[in-house]
């Protein structure tokens, strides 16, 4: 177990200088030897957090806490993960809300254009500033 911990730590330190993505793969290889290794799971969670894989990172930190409930660093990282996940959901919510609003606006415009094509007088009247109101409507 100590060898696995040492190996996981070395892999994390060596690869973290260049990129976190390869370190996730290497940490997975180290965890194949001992899937319940505290440091290996924690380091993989950190690496996944660094590449914005918040759900996977959260799963690793939860597993660390399940196996080692007194791990304060994993608790802190779990809180960070949950915050990042909430922030990501809010960004996605805004993005999709804007996307659907633009689609609805576009549909409304297309429907209005279709109505104008069906009734060319309506389009000409609107372009000339003439309303559909008659003299009777204006007097009332």
Automatic annotation (TrEMBL):
<dbReference type="InterPro" id="IPR019734">
    <property type="entry name" value="TPR_rpt"/>
</dbReference>
<keyword id="KW-0802">TPR repeat</keyword>
<dbReference type="InterPro" id="IPR013105">
    <property type="entry name" value="TPR_2"/>
</dbReference>
<keyword id="KW-0143">Chaperone</keyword>
<keyword id="KW-0963">Cytoplasm</keyword>
<dbReference type="InterPro" id="IPR011990">
    <property type="entry name" value="TPR-like_helical_dom_sf"/>
</dbReference>
<keyword id="KW-0697">Rotamase</keyword>
<feature type="repeat" description="TPR">
    <location>
        <begin position="38"/>
        <end position="71"/>
    </location>
</feature>
<keyword id="KW-0677">Repeat</keyword>
<feature type="region of interest" description="Disordered">
    <location>
        <begin position="111"/>
        <end position="140"/>
    </location>
</feature>
<keyword id="KW-0597">Phosphoprotein</keyword>
<dbReference type="InterPro" id="IPR050754">
    <property type="entry name" value="FKBP4/5/8-like"/>
</dbReference>
<dbReference type="GO" id="GO:0016853">
    <property type="term" value="F:isomerase activity"/>
</dbReference>
<keyword id="KW-0413">Isomerase</keyword>
<protein>
    <recommendedName>
        <fullName>peptidylprolyl isomerase</fullName>
        <ecNumber>5.2.1.8</ecNumber>
    </recommendedName>
</protein>
<dbReference type="Pfam" id="PF07719">
    <property type="entry name" value="TPR_2"/>
</dbReference>
């Amino acid at each position: 177990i100590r060898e696995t911990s040492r190996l996981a730590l070395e892999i994390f330190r060596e690869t973290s200088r260049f990129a976190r993505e390869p370190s996730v793969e290497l940490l997975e290889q180290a965890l194949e030897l001992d899937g319940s290794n505290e440091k290996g799971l924690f380091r993989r969670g950190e690496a996944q957090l660094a590449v914005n894989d918040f759900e996977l990172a959260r799963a690793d930190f939860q597993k660390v806490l399940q196996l080692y409930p007194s791990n304060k660093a994993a608790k802190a990282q779990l809180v960070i993960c949950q915050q990042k996940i909430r922030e990501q959901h809010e960004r996605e919510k805004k993005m999709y809300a804007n996307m659907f609003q633009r689609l609805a606006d576009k549909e409304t415009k297309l429907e209005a254009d279709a109505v104008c094509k069906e009734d060319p007088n309506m389009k000409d009247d609107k372009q000339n500033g003439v309303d559909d109101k008659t003299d009777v409507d204006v007097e009332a």
